[in-house]
Amino acid sequence: MIAYFVMEIGLNAHIATYSGGLGLLAGDTVMSFADLGVPAVAVTLLYKGGYLHQKINPAGEQIEQDTHWDYTKHLKKLNLSLEVPFGDKKQKVTCWEYWVRSKGEVRVLFLDADLEGNDPDVRRLNHRLYLGDGIHRLRQEILLGIGGYKVLKALGYRPHVYHMNESHSAFLVVELLKEYGSLEEVRKRCVFTTHTPVPVGHDRFPVGMVKEELKSYDHMNWEEEGEDGHINLSRLALKHSGYVNGVSYKHMFVSRDIFPEHEGIDYITNGVHHSRWIHEELKELLDQYIPRWENNPHLLQGVYSLPSHLLYETHERIKKQLVNLINRTTDASFSSDLLTLGVARRITSYKRNDLILRNIERLIQIAEHYEGLQIVFAGKAHPKDEGGKGIIRHILEKSAYVKRRTHKLKIAFLENYDIDMAKLLVAGCDVWLNNPRRPLEACGTSGMKAGMNGVLNFSTWDGWWLEGGIEGFNGWGIGPKPGWQDLSPSDDGQDAEDIYNKLFYTIMPTYYHRKEDWIKLMKNSIATIGPYFNTHRMVEEYVGKIYINLMR
Ligand SMILES: *Cc1c(COP(=O)(O)O)cnc(C)c1O
Asked: What is the dihedral of CA 191, 462, 539, 531, to 10 degrees?
């Protein structure tokens, strides 16, 4: 049995306990576990107010509200009550379940300490995802790691593998050390996957704070675990794991650079659950020409047998659905005849979501030289990320500006990016633009979703795209292509220049004047990205490289 620990999970648009890539990956992973019959149980936290419900006011400011979702309708409460120590006090914890059912089935456990009789500060841990910092966040992580360990035990699980996804659950090693007595025994059972190359993504807490909260565990020497008086959860997870990996080949080198003292950091490149992300309309077409592609996504290389006009017509139908959504919810008046770029993901500085708007006059010129250009943006900024919020304001400002200047360039911003919106965007756009600053994209997954829908990637040479992208064959790169171990940063000006040049000289003329070539690129994209960048392949690697060794 594999115990898969993660702070957030994106199972469907109704279960609002996710914010971005990590959560969506967790959802896709458990779906592949279930399809492939891998014995696994997932452990996460319940967030009764979700992550954030986003509205944008006329000034372009993000308004953040609770997500109202009825967790009692989507999850089932277990008849279970146990205690988790927070400092001096023991607090009650229970959990809720959700089953992902396919050939096999995977149970997802949502821990809940928002119970009558508990301290208000502890009850708040289940309010929102990633809302607090300091002690609030420390306690959420204690709830996940220690509470998760105890819940599994109470339910009778005896996991062979504890898989920590990000370090949020690292406190579970405190319980494992107590149970197994030695570092060596704990390392035989723990796997740590690091998902971020951004140093702020690695949580740190003052040693004193950790000692105070975990004072009932006297087998830990926190001074010894600390560095500069702080406990770094990634280092705690690293030290206690027998296997550590990054999430793309490039990210392995980045992680080795962040944790030079840890030897042998490996990689397993992420994937996406192909059946979930390929649009229903395209699925029907694939079913006719590539039977069994859902069971075996390797077969997607057979996409070349699809008649080109059918593939393109299917894409156009999906695009019309997207254009309808945009025209229903914004005043951007999109047309389904124009080249449409999608830029949808978390909004934060390193992702440079607004890079394409850097030289707006140049972009207008490009659009006006051809039939036109449409760009649809979506994404949420973290409530404390002022940089991200500035990007949203900038996008709205430029969108209003181009509306006055030209009718050939159209810019829309869709509010409240979520799973259902993502499904339509990754299938209905023509080009998926992703231009994070190198080398900060650990892997990236939305481009995989787009690529297997025949939506062409236009992306920085970083993360998964360094492995999957073939210039001019299944999409295009942005900026210089670095060597695997080259960790030099991107230059914003140079990258923006590259975006404009490739749009003008390659992408727009191919789309408008060489449609047959365009459809070939779409097929190349599905045939090269579908067979490899899926979670079936990824899970098979986790099983074959790691789990199987720990389960002996
Ligand atoms: C796939 C997905 C993400 C992750 O996208 P990246 O571009 O890899 O950051 C985030 N949010 C939603 C809703 C998604 O579907």
From this structure: -170
pLDDT tens-digit readout, 208-266: 999 999 999 999 999 999 999 999 999 999 999 999 999 999 999 999 999 998 989 99
**Per-residue exposure over 250-277, b if at least 16 CB sit within 10 Å of its own CB, e if not:** bbbbbbbebbeebeebebbbbbbbbbbb
- For residue 117, give the 3-state DSSP assignment: coil
CA 56 to centroid of chain Cα atoms? 23
Does the CB atom of residue 468 touch ligand 1 within 6 A?
no
Atom 1 of ligand 1: nearest residue by CA position: 446
Residue 379 has pLDDT above 80, yes or no: yes
Q: Judge if 360 and 445 occupy the same domain.
A: yes
Residues 264-304: tens digit of each pLDDT: 999 999 999 999 999 999 999 999 999 999 999 999 999 99
Report pTM.
Answer: 0.97
Q: From the alpha carbon of 417, which atom of ligand 1 is closest?
A: 13
Separation of CA 416 and ligand 1 centre (Å): 13
Is ligand 1 within 6 A of the CB of residue 446? yes
Q: Residue 276: CB within 6 Å of ligand 1? A: no
Instruction: Say if residue 251 is in the same domain as residue 292.
Output: no
250 and 280 part of one domain = no
Number of domains in the chain: 2
Residues 226, 283 within the same domain: no
27 lines ligand 1 (CB under 6 A): no
DSSP, collapsed to helix, strand or coil, labels residue 431 as strand
| 215 & 314 share domain | no
Verify that 314 and 343 share a domain, yes or no: yes
CATH number for the domain harbouring residue 458? 3.40.50.2000
Same domain for 295 and 370 = yes
